[in-house]
Amino acid sequence: MTARIHEFLRTRDDDGPCLVVDRDVVRDNYLQFARSLPDTRVFYAVKANPAPELLALLAELGSCFDTASVQEMKLVLEAGATADRISFGNTIKKERDIARALELGVRLFAVDCEAEVEKIARAAELTGAQDIRVFCRILCDGAGAEWPLSRKFGCAPEMAVEVLEHAWRHGLDAYGVSFHVGSQQGNTQAWDQALAASAAIFRECAERGIRLSMVNLGGGFPTRYLKQIPAVEAYGQSIFEALSRHFGNRIPETIIEPGRGMVGNAGVIEAEVVLVSRKSRAEDEIRWVYLDIGKFGGLAETMDEAIRYAIRTPHDGEASTPCVLAGPTCDSADVMYERIPYDLPVSLSIGDKVLIEGTGAYTSTYAAVAFNGFPPLKSYVI
């Protein structure tokens, strides 16, 4: 937690759980990505945290933006970025949204099947838009990621060639390939296999007379929770070596889509202990600690206990005991850590404030709107 966040929380009016994000940390993260992958364009994943203040900061720094909807595009444009710095990275798009993106000036689109290509081609004909670039997302092994991605996005590498040729035959620019190695990826070598597959697609397309230009390396860059993580420089070096290994002297254009790695460590959630209890009078060491925030209030990534946040209390350093950590809603799924209980101080009691660190990404955007009547997570950017 930064000194700025500490001072903000010390003086704020207590109005329930809140997220506080320090812009200076985000600035430092962006510059670190830019230094570590100097020949790669940064497309910030807006879904991680779309706070207007953060988008304006990143636009000023020169970042591009990975968006998943027209609404995210509008937020980016309002923040001062131009449409040529926006990618429509969602592979599942309504045709009217594609047309609206084209009207806004966006020309870079993700696909993973021929049907999606055809939607873009029809929207292009409808709007008269030209110079539209598409890249095909391929399936990728997310081994090593704490938040692995499913088969929902991407196609088999051998199918990608057909998809890109389909785009080329429809008058679109078959621009390149993309993949995602899984969110919170702790293995710096995770990009190697996907880059090998990407290079093979480049070669096959070239044999068909289609010259690809770009590889979208996706996200996956981690933020620190409870475990140490490699430095961004280690990822940059590993990716560069893999690019050289698989593409030789003809290294393509590259882009990255950091989200968690850009804003995760910039945010802290302050929450309150609502209840501490046990489930039986028998000699049960496990206590239940209920906070005023849970899965539906912004901590959705505790699903399956995938992301284990660092939690700070006023009693750290005192004797601790295993606890089940749960949220306040009337839903039995609103339990964050039970399979692997979380050690918390024995002296932790009702009314204590706790700090949940590393929560700058995928918290305010995952927060439910008024489930059980609880208001959405308040968010402050300082």
What's the short story on this structure?
30% of the residues lie in helices and 24% in strands. It is α/β, with parallel strands linked by helices.
- What's the N-to-C terminus distance? 13 Å
The overall average pLDDT, rounded, is: 96
Tally of helical segments: 10
- What is the CATH superfamily label of the largest domain? Alanine racemase
User: Which secondary-structure class do the elements indicate?
Assistant: alpha/beta
How many beta-strand segments? 18
Report the portion of residues in β strands: 15-25%
CATH architecture of the largest domain: Alpha-Beta Barrel
Task: Return the CATH class of the largest domain.
Answer: Alpha Beta
What number of domains?
Answer: 2
Q: How much is the radius of gyration in Å?
A: 22 Å
- The share of residues in helices is 25-40%
CATH topology of the largest domain: TIM Barrel
**Main sheet makeup:** 8 strands, mixed
Helix and strand pattern: HEHEHEHEHEHEEHEEHEHEHEEEEEEE
- Low-confidence parts: none
Shape: elongated
Organism: Saliniramus fredricksonii
EC number: 4.1.1.17
GO cellular component, one term: cytoplasm
Cofactor: pyridoxal 5'-phosphate
